[in-house]
Amino acid sequence: MPVFEPPYYAAVFTSVRTPGDNGYGVTADRMSELVREIPGFLGEDFAASESGLRITVAYFRHEEGLREWAGNGEHREAQRRGRAEWYESYSLHVAKVERSHGFERGE
After folding, report:
1. Closest by Cα among 40, 25, 11 to 78
2. Rounded to whole angstroms, how far apart are CA atoms 53 and 91?
3. CA Rg, the chain, in Å?
4. What is the chain's percent helix, strand, coil content, to nearest 5?
């Protein structure tokens, strides 16, 4: 798990998927590839529960990178398809991180 030097921004996307893939996997892979090209992108984390809840957190050094990602044409098209096909529900939370620390066994 990454730990970045604050301050930075975190975009927390929480979702519940619809049944079936319908092209979601390919698009998700492309979005993960594309976001890495955004200046100021620091990294991402992903988690999923057995109940179907999925959480993706993308980290950005500055708000400008986050805005660039939000306005990216391919990302906007994926958002449109998400509402039309892939998600039962989702939420997005954006936060400025002012404190951050981590732990790894063996360090």
Report:
1. 25
2. 11
3. 15
4. 35, 35, 35
Q: What tens digit of pLDDT does each residue of 42-98 get?
A: 999 999 999 889 999 999 999 999 999 999 999 999 999 999 999 999 999 999 999
Cis peptide before 19 (omega within 30 of 0): no
pLDDT of residue 3: 85
- Whether 6 shows a pLDDT value over 80: the answer reads yes
End-to-end CA distance of the chain: 14
Using an 8 Å Cβ cutoff, are 66 and 8 in contact? no
In degrees rounded to 5, what are phi and psi of residue 60? -130, 140
Give CA–CA dist 49/26, Å, rounded. Answer: 21
Nearest to 24 by CA among 94, 91, 84, 93: 84
Q: Which domains does the chain have, with CATH numbers?
A: 8-97 (3.30.70.100)
